[in-house]
Amino acid sequence: PLVLAAAAAGDRRALVGRAIDRRLLADVESTLGVLLQVRTRAAGTAAAAADGMRTVTVPLALSDGARAQLDVTLSAQPVRRTTRSTILTAAGAGLLVCVLLVGLLGALLRRSVTDPLGALRRGIERMRSGDYRVRLPLVGASEVQSVSEGFNRMCELVGTQRDRLHALANTDSLTGLANHRTFHDALAGASEASTNAGVSFAVVVLDLDRFKVLNDACGHARGDEVLRRLARRLEHIVRGSDLLGRLGGDEFGILLPAADGDAALAVAERARAAIGAIELEGYTIDSSAGVACCPADATEGPRVLELADAALYQAKLTGGEQTCRFDPRVSGPGALEERQAVVREPLLAPETMNCVFQPIVELERGAVVGYEALARFNPDRGMGPAEWFDLARSCGLGPELQALRVTRALGVPGRPVGAWLSVNVDPGAFGSESVQAAFSGDLRGIVIEITEQELPSDDQLLQSQLAELRTRGARIALDGRRSRLRRPLPRRARAAGPDQARPLARRRRASRRRPLRPDRGVRQLCPAHRRRGLRRGDRDRGAARRPDRGAGDARSGLRPRAPRPPWVAVPPEVVEQVCAGARRSPRPVPV
User: Fold this and answer.
1) Is 284 within 8 Å of 230 (Cβ atoms)?
2) Is 366 in contact with 576 (CB distance < 8 Å)?
3) What whole-number distance in Å separates Cα of residue 382 and Cα of residue 500?
């Protein structure tokens, strides 16, 4: 039988050998230091326990048949130290690997998700502050790149729309010039610079003469073309520092920084010459201009513009086709009182202002569906309706005169059942007590047309007033037709005597290449009515060239007529002719 034995080698490892008899066990039994102890004992005896040692017992079968035990006792400390070291090493290596994996994952997440989201947040903040030029890099995960690409498209779209809205809010859509709001903002800036640094500036206000007649003769489309061509010509006569704007209708303004009255007069004359070079179907365009300066005439921008407008009005009163510098002796308080006295004539004697009603025909059915109230004044003053209302606005009596028009229009009885009545009101006069009192009672069947003559002073107040009128049955509309008809030329100069007005009128007639005949198309359209003609309200446009047919104001095209029924019908043959003309050509047919 074989027996296991152990001995210590030089490198302190335990060597296992073979023992073939009992005698060899004596040589085996020994203590090999603290690392390994080998003992033999008889079977059935207990092994001696030692602290900090681990004993492994192996049964032996001796050659003589006896039973014995081989105890191999090993120290447990090296094993524990080795095990602990191995565990610590493995744990450290595992922890290091985990840290590296976490760091790598964090870097990937930061590059793919966190950094792009941070850039998106910063881009949103920049966009919120008004910078729509921000663009995000297309990095990171595909989903994040899609979000960044969508954000870039949104910024581009919103920026484009914002620029477009900014341009619409600050420029005139027809001419591309600065609009009324932008001009007033620039005027406020020039006024502030004049107050702080003593820099002077001047304002030139231009207005076309007889532009309404050209619109009626050639159509509003050609009138818009004239305004666009006029804007391009005026842009070539101003400096880069000057501001050219359209104040409304056919009225333009030029803001001239660091300019005095003489320089402003020179610019106004160049502008009038440029306007006079425009031709449309053989018609020449004439204009008038008014000039005012800061600080020579006033120290506040709105006041300077008001004085330039007063000088323009004075140029119109004295015949037009000229430039007037503001003169307080002519356009000052005395002139204001004179204008107020003129406007108070119809206010004190309401019978001097009448209302006529222009029928509105629905061409599809040929039926009169409504009427527009038109004011007519005493022709002895030589002014048309638009001039009366412009005069009232210039002297602060605009709301009172418009309230009188509304009162006279709503007070005419007998309006056909189902036909609506349209009346015009300026937004600036809408909040006055006189106008509000004129719109008292039931307003069903009444259409209130808000004109574009001026901006409302309080948008919220105007909206609340319109909402209150809607509750009483009124309908609200925007009157865009008047935007081109503002301030037509007075047909007779009140300041000048008859002998002074006639040569000027002859020169104007000689400057035209051919007379304006807006009634010619109507007479050709309706041959059956060539003799009596067609009238818009009670206007006879041919009266300006036929002064012998009746007394009154021949130049204005308005002359007194015999009283007629206020609610007139349109002859069926006229409606048929107009419908036929509208089908042949998309161009509006004047009636």
Assistant:
1) no
2) yes
3) 15
DSSP state letters, 526-569: -GGGTTT---BTTB-GGGGG-GGGSSSBTTTTB-------SSPP
Residue 362 domain flag = no
pLDDT reported for residue 564: 61
What are 488-529's pLDDT values in tens digits? 333 322 333 333 333 333 333 333 333 333 333 333 333 333
Sign of CA dihedral 104, 107, 111, 116: positive
Looking at the annotation, which residues are catalytic?
Answer: 250
Q: Rounded to whole angstroms, how far apart are CA atoms 131 and 155?
A: 9
Greatest Cα-to-Cα distance within the chain, rounded to the nearest angstrom: 170
**Co-location of 84 and 45 in the same domain:** no
Give 183-196 pLDDT, tens digit per residue: 988 998 898 888 88
pTM of structure: 0.45
Residue 31: domain span: 3-75
For residue 380, give Cα distances in angstroms to 182, 488, 489, 559, 572.
40, 17, 16, 9, 36
Q: In this structure, is residue 467 part of a structural domain?
A: no
Q: 410: which 2 tokens? A: 């709503």
What's the CA gap between 274 and 283, in Å, rounded?
15
Nearest C-alpha neighbor of 581 from the set 538, 539, 527: 527
Tokens, residue 586: 């998309």
254, 267 Cβ separation under 8 angstroms: yes
To which H or E segment does residue 267 belong? Answer: helix 261-276
* Separation of alpha carbons 250 and 206, rounded Å: 8
